[in-house]
Amino acid sequence: MGKKGFKNLAVWQKAKDLAVLIYRVSNSEMKNVDFGLRDQVRRSAVSVASNLAEGDERDTDKESVRYFFIAKGSVAELRTQLQIAHESGHLNGTMYETLKKNTPLWAKESASSFRRDAHPLASSPLPLACP
């Protein structure tokens, strides 16, 4: 329920950038991955930004928080799929390590930027914080 709109949320901007990066990586590094895994990696990456946007546009804080938690789940889903792609030999070690290292950092930074954006839900638990 942001007043400025989801495109002004730093957390959404980072999620969108992550989705664009995943599309680029999946086009270059994951060309030979079976369509199902490559498509699911892309879909989970897009889901993060999409759920943040949808949550921000919801009418109540309760609805918004629900979508932010769905986005958190999509981050975990993405991390799992990237690990499967790597362990099955479809994502090289360098790229996997870069994504593995940056995805949890991205989620932590996003949670912090969510607080800084002074979103109406800033006092709610932040769903993108990774342990």
Provide structural commentary.
It is a single chain. It contains four helices and no strands. It is an all-alpha fold and 131 residues long. Helix 1 runs antiparallel to helix 4, helix 2 runs antiparallel to helix 3 and helix 3 (61-87) runs antiparallel to helix 4 (93-116).
Write a brief structural summary:
It is built from four helices and no strands. The protein has helices at residues 10-28, 35-57, 61-87, 93-116.
> Overall 3D geometry?
elongated
The string of secondary-structure elements, in order, is HHHH
Mean pLDDT: 79
Poorly predicted parts: 121-131
Count of β-strands = 0
Largest sheet properties: none
Helix content: over 70%
Strand content: under 5%
**What is the end-to-end distance?**
26 Å
Rg from alpha-carbon coordinates:
15 Å
Number of helices: 4
Structural class: mainly alpha
Which terms would index this structure?
131 residues, mainly alpha, disordered C terminus
SSE blueprint and pairings:
Elements: H1 10-28, H2 35-57, H3 61-87, H4 93-116
Helix pairs in contact: 1-2, 1-4, 2-3, 3-4
